[in-house]
Write a structure and sequence with these properties.
Strand order of the largest sheet: 1-4-5-8
Helix content: 25-40%
Structural class: alpha/beta
Number of helices: 5
Strand content: 15-25%
Distance between the termini: 21 Å
Radius of gyration: 17 Å
Largest sheet: 4 strands, parallel
Oligomer: single chain
Order of helices and strands: HEHEEEHEEEEHH
Number of strands: 8
Shape: globular
Length: 169
């Protein structure tokens, strides 16, 4: 991000394609560069009437007025889906590409006897507008597939569409 701040860039294409995610805290921090500090980035929904837990942005909001579009595909999962969903909900950012993976479950590791363990799903992730990511993924605002022919000819119609959309801003 520091490289972007030092550059003459006035628009951003954030490419989250094939990003399997990572730590929620990193998604909170990165999202916070693009939205107001303290904005709800994700909601942990435990179901069964349990009180949901909100996770808020922690970045410095320095890029919140910069135009941005986000590229996603079936390889975008977990924390990258949380970030993409938050940017769309909070800033109206356009998601371009293919439907994301849908890894929206919160899992807990429980130790059992004799060194074994069990991973149990305890909650699901929701976007700030309370849309479930789990199993559903995020539908792009602008759907663009990449064909085998595109790959063989080293073309990237998703990126080309992102450039077209961001230049119109």
């Amino acid at each position: 991000i520091m490289e972007v701040l030092r550059s003459p860039a006035d628009r951003i294409i954030l490419d989250l394609r094939n990003n399997p995610g990572g730590y929620l805290e990193v998604a909170q921090d990165l999202t916070g560069w693009f939205v107001d500090v303290g904005s709800v980035v994700a909601i942990e929904d435990f179901g069964n009437g349990a009180e949901p837990r909100e996770y808020r942005s922690s970045g410095n909001s320095v890029l919140k007025s910069m135009p941005i579009v986000v590229l996603i595909n079936e390889g975008s999962a977990s924390a990258s889906e949380i970030m993409a969903g938050a940017l769309r909900d909070l800033r109206g950012v356009k998601l371009i590409g293919a439907k994301s993976y849908g890894k929206g479950s919160v899992q807990e590791l429980t130790s059992l006897r004799e060194g074994t363990s069990l991973k149990v799903t305890i909650a699901k992730w929701l976007t700030p507008s309370k849309k479930s990511i789990m199993n559903e993924g995020l539908e792009p605002d602008v759907k663009m597939e990449i064909t085998k022919d595109d790959i063989e000819n080293m073309k990237d119609p998703q990126l080309e569409k992102a450039i077209e959309v961001i230049m119109a801003k």
